Amino acid sequence: MPQKRPAPRLALIDEAHMNDAQRALLASLRAGPRGQSITPRGPFAVWMHAPELGELAQKLGAHCRYNKALPPRLSEFAILCTARQWRAQYEWFAHAPIAEKAGVKPKTIADLQAGREPKSAPKDERAIYAFVQELYRTRRVSDRTYKRVQSLLGDGATVELVGILGYYTLIAMTLNVFRMMPPADTRLAFADK
């Protein structure tokens, strides 16, 4: 039986009906590292309703995903931790396959999806998991947790990690508030609570 999905709160804007600011945002998205084939879905569909914000946010997102000191495996792992924390269905749908392709083990992905600590994950992923959990739970990280991640990543990548977590929290909030869901023919990652 298909899972019931809430209706999006904002309409998708068809490319033929976009105004100049919306067309400029779409052109900017397509000119960047996401490529010509991108269509405004997920957070980009929401940002078409506020294209000036969308332009700034998508540029930050392009940096967080494509121009960072953090390796793709660890970046995608951190994104999945954020998606799970927020139960952001679309974020999980978009990034779980990317994470696996980047080298995050399927068992680790399954543990995250189920809300379990990924105990069999590599040391660096376990350190990031602890960092993410502590940050989201307490809004801070202890010296011990910070030093564990910083010793593995270095200063620049630790700063990038915090930026990725902040950006993908913005994405998760955007997706959840405006009820942007994965395609209807895909299984939802989390039970809605």
Describe the SSE topology.
Elements: H1 20-31, H2 42-47, H3 51-66, H4 72-86, H5 89-102, H6 106-113, H7 123-138, H8 143-153, H9 155-177
Helix pairs in contact: 1-3, 3-9, 4-5, 4-7, 4-9, 7-8, 8-9
Give an account of the 3D structure.
33% of the residues are buried. The longest helix has 23 residues. With 193 residues, the protein is mostly helical. The radius of gyration is 17 Å and the shape is globular. The mean pLDDT is 94. It has two domains: 51 residues, no CATH class; 106 residues, AhpD-like, CATH 1.20.1290. Helix content is 63%, strand content 0%.
Short description:
This protein has 193 residues and is mainly alpha-helical.
What would the CATH topology of the largest domain be? Answer: AhpD-like
Please count the beta strands (DSSP E, at least 2 residues each).
Answer: 0
Sketch the major β-sheet: none
Helix content percent band: 55-70%
Q: Helical region count?
A: 9
Characteristic terms for this protein:
globular; 2 domains; mainly alpha
